[in-house]
Write a structure and sequence with these properties.
- The complex is a heterodimer of chains A (about 80) and B (about 220).
- Chain A has about 80 residues and is of the alpha+beta class.
- Chain A has a single domain, classed as Mth169, Chain: A, CATH 3.30.1280.10.
- Chain A has two helices and three strands, in the order βαβαβ.
- Chain A has helices at about 15-25, 50-65; strands at about 1-10, 40-45, 70-79.
- In chain A, strands 2-1-3 form a three-stranded antiparallel beta sheet, with helices on one face.
- The radius of gyration of chain A is 16 Å and the shape is elongated.
- In chain A, about 10% of the residues are buried.
- Chain B is built from six helices and eleven strands.
- Chain B has about 220 residues and is an alpha/beta fold.
- Chain B is globular, with a radius of gyration of 16 Å.
- Helices cover about 25% and strands about 25% of the residues of chain B.
- In chain B, strand 1, helix 1 (about 15-20) and strand 2 (about 25-30) form a beta-alpha-beta unit.
- Chain B has a nine-stranded mixed beta sheet with strand order 2-1-3-4-11-10-9-6-7, sandwiched between helices. In chain B, strands 5-8 form a two-stranded antiparallel sheet.
- The chains are: A alpha+beta (about 80), B alpha/beta (about 220).
- Chains A and B meet through helix 1 and helix 2 of A and loops of B.
Chain lengths: ~80, ~220
């Protein structure tokens, strides 16, 4: 079973890297980019075959390690 | 004083920190990250600067989950003294022993220079040999030192007198110029600047020595 975790900075947390990318896009002539937010995608391959158990386990991984929930939120997709 | 210095793969200020402790007369044990127990009888634990585990995932995140860090967290919860410098500060926030997060510098560059710091409190074993508002100079060397805290946390830190140091000229975008913070019991200090790199006149400055001597004077009486 595969899991895909998307980690993003929470709304309201300033993203200095996203801002730098936005400026770079502007200087390349891409006008009208009002905001850029940069995050991470983490793909996991799991031995678990039960979807609900897999999701619960990946959520625990996110809370303990994959995301810093002080500033980051995450989404888990199981496929 | 008996000090322990944690060594992760990628730590690079561990020996500097050991020397800074030794200069106060302390006996220092180096503690490998895979150890699960701390040596008996430690008075203070130092978490050094560097790039533990290559800063993969987030700075300090993987180190914070290492076996020895569980022992460090227990030690701090029992009232032990811990100092985390630079990457060590990042590790302490990742373990949640200290609040807030160190994000990418707002200037997006690695900043390596000596900076001015204003001592924000003298009410801790680490800062009692300074006086409030005294300006000291320690080197910084980091890419992710932008202390990030929401308004509520900043108000709480100020209300509880838990800001230890502030930058006199903010180099990294840190909220409220915060360079170092104390835990609620004032026994855990995290700071981005390197006092251990300023303990000898040959370092270009020795303002950091008073931090280690303060700690030694408190812990030798304990």
């Amino acid at each position: 079973m595969k899991a895909r975790v998307q980690v993003m900075l929470k709304q309201g947390v300033l993203d200095p890297q996203g801002e730098a990318v936005r400026h770079a896009l502007g200087s390349l002539g891409f006008l009208g980019v009002n905001s850029v937010r940069q995050g991470k995608v983490i793909e996991l391959e799991l031995a678990e075959t039960d979807k609900a158990k897999a999701e619960a386990s990946v959520r625990e991984m996110c809370d303990k390690l994959l995301a810093n929930t002080v500033i980051e939120s995450y989404k888990v997709e199981i496929a | 004083m008996r000090a322990g210095v944690i060594v992760f793969p990628g730590s690079n200020c561990d020996r500097d920190l050991a020397v800074a402790f030794e200069r106060t007369g302390a006996k220092v044990s180096m503690i490998w990250h895979k150890d699960t127990e701390l040596p008996q009888g430690l008075d203070v634990i130092g978490i050094p600067g560097g790039f533990s585990f290559g800063d993969y995932l987030r700075c300090g995140a993987i180190a914070a989950q290492s076996p020895i860090c569980r022992a460090v967290v227990d030690y701090a919860h029992r009232g032990g003294y811990v100092i985390g410098i630079c990457n060590g500060f990042q590790v302490l926030t990742e373990t949640r022993l200290l609040p807030g997060v160190l994000m990418r510098n707002s200037v997006l560059k690695f900043v390596c220079k000596t900076v001015g710091l204003s001592v924000a409190t003298e009410d801790s074993a680490f800062t009692r040999n300074y006086h409030r508002d005294q300006v000291v100079h320690f080197p910084i060397a980091h890419h992710d030192g932008n202390y990030t805290a929401d308004a509520e946390l900043v108000a709480r830190l100020i209300g509880e007198d838990r800001v230890a140091f502030r930058y006199t000229d903010n180099p990294n975008g840190s909220t409220d110029d915060i360079a170092g913070v104390l835990s609620e019991n004032r026994r855990v200090l995290g700071l981005m600047p390197h006092p251990e790199r300023a303990v000898d006149i040959n370092h270009g400055g020795s303002d950091g020595a008073a931090l280690f001597s303060a700690l030694a004077s408190v812990l030798e009486l304990a």
